[in-house]
Design brief:
Order of helices and strands: EEEEEEEEHHEEHEEE
Number of helices: 3
Strand content: 25-35%
Protein name: SusC/RagA family protein
């Protein structure tokens, strides 16, 4: 069973197969960029296939079923948005009147569909804004790179490719709080039982290999048929908090 379409950027990204994990990513495998002289699968009567143009500088699709053409039948499982496990832990250290607490949470073993790469890192005719690196290192006749397609490429905007699937594992430091309790000998003189001052950082840092803004994301969080997709999602904010706790 196929999931829901995810808009103008792609068609259906997730597939549901009996006996397998739900919402697996479904699309095409690729093999770099088409170079001069490459033998590229295509329809015998039409140079434009599901994979778009087969001219040098376009993305090179893999003929997964070996029939010599790139069609819907070449789609395969590309990844799994379901994590192997999620975790979290907290530690607290205290010395005399000073305390430090740090909280972490994380996910391991899940894949993400970074749909932003379709336009940010694919310098094609359909792109309006792309990354500086993608433009500077796009395929050209005098620079036949195997990383980014040509700025004149015509790869289809709705194809889900393995190029957009990334490891979504991460470790996030969700909170760091440093506190200081003013000695009772001092606060008692001004009529208080206790005074504690503290400073806190929420979402301090994230360790991840994901190239998007934030790996802890799901654009379609309330749609079980569209899973693990990052499409124009905003990253979580970082906040700084300073506080004073007074006991009378």
């Amino acid at each position: 069973y196929l999931g829901n379409s995810i808009g103008d950027h792609f068609g259906v990204a997730n597939i549901f197969i009996e006996g397998k994990a739900p919402g697996l990513f479904w699309g095409y495998k690729t093999d770099g960029i088409i170079q001069e002289g490459d033998d590229v699968p295509q329809k015998s009567d039409n140079k434009n296939t599901v994979a778009g143009s087969t001219d040098p500088g376009n993305i090179k699709f893999v003929d997964s079923n070996g029939d010599g053409m790139i069609t819907e039948d070449d789609k395969v499982i590309l990844g799994d948005p379901n994590p192997d496990f999620t975790y979290g832990f907290q530690t607290r250290l205290a010395y005399k009147d000073i305390s430090l607490s740090v909280s972490f949470n994380g996910v391991y073993g899940n894949d993400l569909l970074n749909s932003n790469l379709r336009y940010e890192a694919m310098p094609s005719k359909n792109s309006s804004n792309i990354r500086k690196d993608a433009f500077a290192n796009a395929w050209r006749a005098d620079n036949p790179t195997n990383r980014y397609p040509s700025v004149n490429s015509t790869n289809p905007s709705t194809a889900v490719l393995d190029r957009y699937i990334e490891d979504g594992s991460f470790l996030r430091c969700s909170d760091i709080t440093l506190g200081y309790t003013i000695p009772k000998s001092l606060v008692g003189k001004i009529g208080f039982q206790a005074i504690n001052v503290f400073a806190s950082v929420k979402n301090a840092f994230v360790i991840t290999d994901y190239s998007g803004y934030d790996p802890e994301v799901n654009t379609f969080a309330f749609d079980g048929l569209r899973r693990g997709i990052d499409m124009n999602s905003f990253p979580q904010s970082r906040s700084y908090i300073f506080g004073l706790s007074v006991t009378f």
